[in-house]
Structures are given as C-alpha cells and as structure tokens.
Amino acid sequence: MKRIFLFAAVVVAMACSTQVKAQKNPMVGGAAMYPTKDIVDNAVNSKDHTTLVAAVKAAGLVETLKSAGPFTVFAPTNEAFDKLPKGTVGNLVKPENKATLTKILTYHVVAGKMGSKEIAAAIKAGGGKAELTTVEGGKLWAWMEGKNLMLKDEKGGMAKVTIKDVFQKNGVIHVIDTVLMPK
C-alpha cells in the first residue's frame, strides 16, 4: 500500500512539473507553444505566423527547422510581413525567387540556442551591443532599449522582440515585429 501511494505521489508530481514547464512558454498567436515540439510543429499553430510558415515551406526549409539544431529564430509576425511593400511576399514565394527567400529567412536564424539571458550576456560583454552571425552568414546587432530587446539588420532596419524565450526542443523563438533584411 505504501508503494502504491508513493507511486501515485510521483505520478502526480511529474504531471504537475510537466504542466508547469508547459506554462513557462508564452502563448504565441493564440496557441500554446510546447518545449517538447520542434520549431515548425509549434509555429504552424500560431495564427500570427501563417505568412512565415508559408515562406518556410516555399523556401524548402521545413526539414532544416525540424532537425536537431539548435537554432535561435527571430520570427516575424504576419503584421511584420505586411509592412513590406505591397506584393513583396507574393513575389518572394514564387519558385523562381526561392534563393532570395531562403537568404531572407536564414538571415532570421542564428546557430545555437540563445535565450534572452544569453543575448543579454552577449550585449553586456559587447559593451551595450551584441553582434550576432546569422545562418545566412550576415550580421545582426542586438541591444536593449529599456526593457525591450532590439535588433538591427545590415540595411539599417530595426525590429523589436515582442515575445521572448519561446523554447522548443530544437532551439528558441523570439517573435519580432519587423522583417529583417540582409545586404
């Protein structure tokens, strides 16, 4: 009887700790983001990232972002894509523009898992600004404006991280409000 009670207590404790872990991740686009799922499996559930998911599919990057990684993804929302000149997204997802689309999307990815604490440490070590190298091979610069984590691309465009630390089994997503552009 004592063993059954102990077993039940362990099961309840595990269930509670799993629930707490799932609650640590913020909701994105009205959907729960699970740390046990990969970047793609979580992103497809966000109503705020349908354009990004369509672009990832058009660029053929689904398998890459489902791989072990780890990756840090700065994920633009649908509203971020809407800030681009009219017709840009429709043009980019055409098969003949796959290379350009891939370059833009991989510019939003940094190899490794960099949560906000790691980025903050890099900013501190860099004297107030951190230089990040993207999978595309370009540079992004990160700094803090008050409590906001900001990013600057190679063309001088700036994005604000609106949701940080969305942990995945193969990395972390930080939601941003503007599409970043490589040179």
From TrEMBL:
PROSITE patterns: FAS1, PROKAR_LIPOPROTEIN
Keyword field contains Transmembrane helix: no
Leader sequence residues: 1-22
Pfam families per record: Fasciclin (PF02469)
Superkingdom of origin organism: Bacteria
Domain FAS1 residues, every copy: 36-180
Entry annotated with the keyword Signal: yes
Keywords annotated in UniProt: Signal
Protein name in the entry: Fasciclin domain-containing protein
SUPFAM superfamilies in UniProt: FAS1 domain
